[in-house]
Amino acid sequence: MKNRFILALLVLSLAGGFAPVSAETAPTAREAWIMHFDGDWKNASGLPEKAMLIGLQGLANRTAPRLYIAHAPDFPWEITVPLADFYTRKHGVKFTELKTADEALTLFAASAKGYVVWDTAVMPTLNVAYTIAGLEDAIVVTPALIPLAERHGLKRIDDLRGRYDGMTDTQIYADAKTRYFARCNPDMIMLMGGHAGDMRIPGIADWGVRQRMFFHDLSGNPAHKDEVALAMELYGAMNPGAFVFGWHSYVKDTEEQHTTLTSTFGLRMDGLQSLPNHSFNSQFTFTPGFKFQNQHHVDRDTKLVAEKKVYLAFVQSDGIGLGVWTKPGRGKLQLAWGAIPSWLEFAPAALEYFQESATPADYFIGGLSGPSYMYPNHIPADRFDGLMREAVRQMEVLDERIFEILDNSAADGNVGNADLTKETVDRYYAAFPNVIGFINGYGPARTFDLRNGVPMISYDYYIDPRRPREEVAADLQELITINRNRPYFCLVHVRESNDVNSLVEVTKQLHGPIEIVPVDTFMKLAASNQTYRTRYQLPTDPKHFEGFRRE
Amino acid sequence: MIAGGLLALGLATAAMAANPALAGRWRYEPTLSTALDGWHKMDLVIALEGTKVAVTHDMLWIRSKVVATNTYDTARAVEAKDYFRVEQRHMAVYPAKGGVTTATAAWIDGDRVLRTEAFTPVEVSQGNVTMRITSEYRVSETGDTLTVIELHSTRNRPLVYVFKKVPAEAAKN
Amino acid sequence: MKKLISFLTLALATALVAPAAEPAATAAPAAKQAWSMNFDLDWTVAGGLPEKALLVSLQGLANRTSPQFYIVHPPQYQWEITGPLFEFYQRKHGVQFTELPTADAALAQFKSAAKGYVVWDKTVGASLNVAFTIAGLEDAVVVSEELIPLVEKHGLKPIDDLRGRYTGQTDDVIYQDAYDKYWARCAKDRIMLMGGHVGAVRMPGMADWGVREKMFFHDLSANPKHTKELALNRRLLSEIEPGGYVFGWHSYGKDTEEQYTTLLSTYGLRMEGLHNLPNLSFNCQFTFTPGFKFTNNHHVAKDAKLTAEPKVYLAFVQSDSIGIGVWTKPGRGKLPFAWQVTMNWTEFSPAALEYFHESATPNDYFIGGLSGPGYMYPNHIPPERFPLLMERANKLMAMLDEHVMEIMDNSAADGNVGNADLTKETVDRYYAAFPNVIGFINGYGPARTRDLRDTRPMISYDYYIDPRRPRAEVAADLNELIALNAKRPYFLLIHVRESNDVNSLVEVTKQLEGPIEIVPVDVFLKLAASNKTYTTRYQDPEEPKHFSGYPKE
């Protein structure tokens, strides 16, 4: 997710308002421990100890939420500190701080049966070590950390030093597959990619260890045939609807390639590789009495009639779009937010936290493309309905009525061909009979439809946060001028990290019969007068990448 | 320049004009426009009569007021002795003394937009030269915004001035 | 000062100061004892002004015979030099300062310098100026009534009490009374125009100097609409000795900088602002450190002959005093810049000039001005006063090692824009008065006065960079000038308004198109002497003037 997810990452400030805990939800006290991490993830310095501690966290949290990690403010997921406060406030968790790895091992070494040594000269050994850690209840250590582990009574379970010297990643992971894959979790696999070079951020390894997942960072780049073939073997062996946690390797392939690959197997992508504390978060439910209540502006069966106007709606789709969530000005402009639906299962407290800080101008929508991040043009037809049934269930819990779709498999980064085939569109209309509309795209797209009062509208504009605001205003004005028929429905995708205040300024520069409306109102208006042309992805439209041929 | 007198014309009906929405008093909106240095305020008062379009500049700098009108004719080229150019007054570019400006005008884009072109002599440090100024006057769909885009033969970056319509009652004052 | 005013933001970052060379053995300073006070920024009449007025008047008396009392202002004060200069005095002049924490402590230290006190009336603003005049003449401090107990505690006796004396009177009546009572005993080669801020805030930071020098304080208007004030003003100015000084600044509530500068120029006087310039009573008593000599970073010899190529030559000039707003901005030294020096500081504040000089980079080049040995509008200087003034300017330029003279006459301009041209007669006078310069610069905003006589060009600014103008538009403006002035060489002289960020100007220059060369202004003028592609032009009598000046009396 250089694009979509990466920056979308929970840039949560502490400024969000907190609702008081009501008497009937007074939590019972629960004991847990917290460690504060700094921002040093260098292989040569901060990584080895952090890798050990995250693995230990997965084991410590196997049966109860006990160890939580709070990250530095510049960590991609800024939610960790506010969420710790939320646990204290709403779940009665009493955290005791652990200041050192030694203290953490003193407390939690009993959760582990031993240690696995990984080889800092062969980085894939860290992923193999994590796989072993999950299966054997081990922590992962570098040679320098062996004395520390042994001081706490841990014995050597395995030592990867030398085992994989000179081998390619394909060879290494093929060996790991042979040795361990059969015992690993068939419903979840860990794509532990992300940064390469002199740093790694395996923040989600606790979750992989806890859930006994197979760790790898195999490529989805067709140029790496052997790695792709092995990745396809692994993905092909997963259960239907399984999860791919983590993220692709930034040096091997692209987000588009890997998401296309996972979608080809009907798997659900849930990133990133740095997402922390799932092993802790997954063990909480919503607080008693909590229920998602979206701020709908129209009833599901309302009929609106569009006037001869230009209707604009703004949507933030990157995860919950947290880059914008924390930016000054949220609440000043009607914005729709794509929530991360799988967090219902893995991080409900985080979703509850967002819900409680929503303003009246914030409206939540479902997506992205399914119950997780997927490219629907590539989802096998026989897997589609099952996945979307889960998405429908998620939307009901989250009180969402609009579904957002993104397929960038044929796009070129954030721009290019992001359209849906007619077959895909047909499937969505069939799978989501109760939505009031669909949104498509990331960059602009051309897929439009209207069936039974339910429009499917693609973005006409994508606001890059780096584009000068006066150019954004001029771009929008030009769209308004070119699309001369009224009503004109102009759906705008707000890239994460756009400053909402600056968007407000942009809207002030627009002239014409403009009306900014919430996206549910927008959909209802778009249903009343189809001034947009029905269109799907044409086979003749150029594609940056055609996808993978499943063996 | 037919100053003053044509100001009154500004609010007159413009039965024959291609886009009557252009007529009236328009007030410069600095937050939406290219910076206008050397002037604090700018109103345009546009009068349409037949093929004639009179564009009056009502300018203010501190307490100094300048009112000047350029009259164009969409049927023929016109010559003006005192053609008014919206100067960036921190540049040493002055109207050439005694210079005569030739100007044309046309309605374009389905008669919605007025395009003018003026060849105006200016004095610079090396003497007198001619500057071509091509301008487009575009009125918004709702009739409340006028965007004037001005392109100079000598400047690659266009000047974009945005104006808001002054309601007729306020314009009388 | 819209020009001078903000220019004066002596925004001196200590970080910019190049480490001074260790003083030579011969220059080792003898230790001197002095006292300092730190002022805050509260100059409100209802708050901090009365005590500050008292202290500033006390400073003038304390510094009558030797430099004893120095005031350090916060960095946000318009003259940010006070802190760095405080450090400079210690470092280069061996001054050992003892801090005085309170007005009480200052009075305890310096009460013997005063013979008593004068009470001013807070309900009559002009009475403060009258009190300052009396303070200079009678060796008094100025107090508002609530400060009487404090000064009496230190044994000071009442000398005069202005409470009630001027109630209900107009400023022209008040100053006429003061004129009748005190003018005869006041200095005649200088006068204090204590204007500036009006209303709730007043900032008489320069009053120490007026008190020390026994000047007549006033803030009479130069606005032709204020006929009575103007008449008295003219009478006072007419009685100043030839070439005398008007210190301070015009009243922001009465007239404009252009009006007042025109008026004093009409009498051949020299303006030295601002009204809040501090510590002149202290600064004037130092000379340059032993062995110090101004050495400008000349790029061409005075008699060099250069030949311009078919290029666009640009030079940047900062004219607002020493342009301190830019001096402290990030990036100084990255572009060749000419800086107009306040020449008279050689007399009143040599340490400040030495301080600037020691922090100059090789790209910083100093030029003379503004118009003469002080701030003046030359079209209005009486012909008979012109040679005397310019003789003085020539001497100061020689001392400061300057080869270029900058001229500005905004008397007919409208703020920063408009008619800033020189008449042919004025140009003739400059050429006669400055035979040794390598060239002249004219204008503030753009102007059209240009000439070339023998090897000395006179070039007006073709562009004025307003610090608020978006940099992309500045680049577009300059490119347009380059396109309009199509002959090569084209000599494009640019005035950089104080407070422009030099780094942003570097970015502007990267956006320019054509055969550009940025040169130091001395090189620029030598090149401009080699190929006159610019027109000869003076102020055209038919061109509109925003203000025509004052009738001769």
Fold and architecture overview:
The complex is a heterotrimer of chains A (551), B (173) and C (553). Chain A is of the alpha/beta class. Chain A has two domains: 31-281, no CATH class; 310-528, GxGYxYP glycoside hydrolase, C-terminal domain (TIM Barrel, Alpha-Beta Barrel). In chain A, strand 1, helix 2 (47-60) and strand 2 form a beta-alpha-beta unit. The longest helix of chain A has 17 residues, at 381-397. Chain A is globular, with a radius of gyration of 24 Å. In chain B, a hairpin with a 4-residue loop joins strand 7 (101-108) and strand 8. In chain B, strands 1, 2, 3, 4, 5, 6, 7, 8, 9, 10 and 11 form an eleven-stranded antiparallel β-sheet that branches. Chain B contains two helices and eleven strands, in the order αβββββββββββα. Chain B has helices spanning 5-9, 168-172; strands spanning 24-28, 41-49, 52-61, 64-73, 78-80, 94-95, 101-108, 113-124, 127-139, 145-152, 159-165. Chain B starts with a helix and ends with a helix. Chain B has a single domain (5-172), classed as Beta Barrel (Lipocalin), CATH 2.40.128. With 553 residues, chain C is of the alpha/beta class. Chain C has two domains: 31-283, no CATH class; 312-530, TIM Barrel. Chain C has 19 helices and 24 strands. In chain C, helix 5 packs parallel to helix 7 (171-182), helix 7 runs parallel beside helix 9 and helix 17 packs across helix 18 (502-510). Chain C is globular. The chains are: A alpha/beta (551), B mainly beta (173), C alpha/beta (553). Chains in contact: A-B, B-C. The interface between B and C is medium-sized, with 29 and 41 residues.
Q: Could you give the topology of this structure?
A:
The complex is a heterotrimer of chains A (551), B (173) and C (553).
Chain A: H1 2-6, E1 30-36, H2 47-60, E2 67-70, H3 80-91, E3 93-97, H4 101-108, E4 114-117, H5 124-136, E5 138-141, H6 146-151, E6 155-159, H7 169-180, E7 188-194, H8 205-210, E8 214-216, H9 225-236, E9 243-249, H10 255-264, E10 268-270, H11 278-281, E11 310-316, H12 322-325, E12 335-338, H13 343-346, H14 348-356, E13 362-365, H15 381-397, E14 402-405, E15 411-412, E16 415-416, H16 422-431, E17 437-440, E18 449-451, E19 454-458, E20 461-463, H17 469-482, E21 488-494, H18 500-509, E22 514-516, H19 519-528
Helix pairs in contact in A: 2-4, 2-5, 5-7, 7-9, 17-18
Chain B: H1 5-9, E1 24-28, E2 41-49, E3 52-61, E4 64-73, E5 78-80, E6 94-95, E7 101-108, E8 113-124, E9 127-139, E10 145-152, E11 159-165, H2 168-172
Chain C: H1 3-7, E1 32-38, H2 49-62, E2 69-72, H3 82-93, E3 95-99, H4 103-110, E4 116-119, H5 126-138, E5 140-143, H6 148-153, E6 157-161, H7 171-182, E7 190-196, H8 207-212, E8 217-218, H9 227-238, E9 245-251, H10 257-266, E10 270-272, H11 280-283, E11 312-318, H12 324-327, E12 337-340, H13 345-348, H14 350-358, E13 364-367, E14 371-372, E15 374-375, H15 386-399, E16 404-407, E17 413-414, E18 417-418, H16 424-433, E19 439-442, E20 451-453, E21 456-460, E22 463-465, H17 471-484, E23 490-496, H18 502-510, E24 516-518, H19 521-530
Parallel strand pairs in C: 1-2, 1-3, 4-5, 4-6, 7-8, 7-9, 9-10, 11-12, 11-23, 11-24, 12-13, 16-19, 19-21, 22-23
Antiparallel strand pairs in C: 14-15, 17-18, 20-21
